[in-house]
Amino acid sequence: MQQSKRIKTNAAVVNDYCGYVPETNGQVEEVPMGKLLGKVNQTNFFENFVLRRKPLKIIEGPVNGVALDKFSSDSIVDYLGYDGKLQVERKHESGYGLGYEREKMSLEELLAKFNSGDLDYYLTTQYKDEEEEKVEEDEWEDEGEENSENGGIENDPDQDSSEEEEQEIKNVDFPDSDLDSIDLNNLQDDYVDSDEESYVSSKKISDLLQPPLTNLFKNQKHKSNSNPNFPLIPDILSFLIPQQINLWIGANGKKKNLLQAEGDAVPRYPDLMPGKPDFGLGRFVPQNGLSSGLHHDHSDNLYILLQGWKRFTLIAPSEAQSLRTVGEIYRIYKTGIIDYNHPGWSHVADDGSVIEKTTTDEEEAKKPIGNHTPPSFSQIPPVFLHLDEIDDDEMRENLTAIAQDRFPEILNLPKLEVWLSPGEMLYLPAGWFHEVTSYGFDPRGTTESTSSEVHIALNYWFAPPNGETIDKPYRDDYWKEDFEELLELI
């Protein structure tokens, strides 16, 4: 296990990022997936994009072992075979990720709601709360007691105290991370040997393959080149270490526009609220898209679009101090990882691993923070990224005036844009700010829209590389050893 490193608090932000930064607004470079396979192509991909921290759109996908037809809204329930309850968000202010309580339902129930016309739900990253963890542990302990009574091996009487001590050292909570794209709470630094091997194995697998993907691990040992099973590591990024794989599912149609009054033919202004920090705009974006809000993640991401359409608006990590983040930025690493001084936040290293807690005062860390939006989110409403799409001149002029007065930086920073259609992918290095607008239809009209209003995306999350070569992408074996332990469980 890594030694804990002590960080000294500095008044000035340390910005070590030296990766790719666009000079002007533009489009993300794109490459066919076939040109990223093979040793030479893999090396070029690593050196020109991964090492440079440069986003890349990958066309002619998806990756080997991920089939669009199996992940379609018509087939996904049967393919995944997961009937457990999932945590599902309700949309709020035209977006998601705002910290509101989630509802629990099965994947089949979620898709049934979409099919009935109820589009106000979104499946994102899954998180286990303390109550769920306790139920699972109790269930395992009950089974263990039964086995012991029937001649099983008795537990070590010293086991509980030693495990508690180890948990105190090992578990660092991220109170705000339940809105992040990857569940940081479930990324463990080490694997411990204990009599709870079965429970630990199951939990570790579900931490990597998040519900409802969890059952896909069962056939990993039986895959073949002619009939590949679901890949734990996509072949185009075989040199990186995966941390988590999750599934996002939402829906939205083109019938309703929040800027259009009931019965009106002409769009109108929303009810602007000057007294609110976001002027009451929330996550509104034009053309009835569903917005993620502008934020960054702490892992490299391979975003695979399986159904629907997505637009990403990207801003480099070097511009973080201009983006009004919820948290106070402490440091921007060379890899793009952004560290914070923030109640409840834990300092991280350049590869995303946890170093130490910022706040030693437990009571301070427990205080509620606004609407629980994590420190990595920008407080700038996403509509200001898309003012050119507002076709009402007066409305656009008014919103532009607000941006010039309150958020002038967002109008001048260089941005990249990328659209994804089904089967296309985006490699996004850690730390890149991005606002994702999701559509169940193609608002550009460039491709034929399906009758379904559902959009589905698969996310692979990787430890950000801090090494210099494809043969040694990480300076140490910190993440590699963790993943090898997990493979042994599978």
TrEMBL record:
Family annotation (InterPro entries): Cupin_8, JmjC_dom
Pfam families: Cupin_8
Comp. bias regions, Acidic residues: 129-148, 155-167
Domain of life: Eukaryota
JmjC domain ranges (all copies): 242-479
Coiled-coil ranges from the UniProt annotation: none
Annotated segments matching region Disordered: 126-184
Protein name as it appears in the record: JmjC domain-containing protein
Organism: [Candida] railenensis
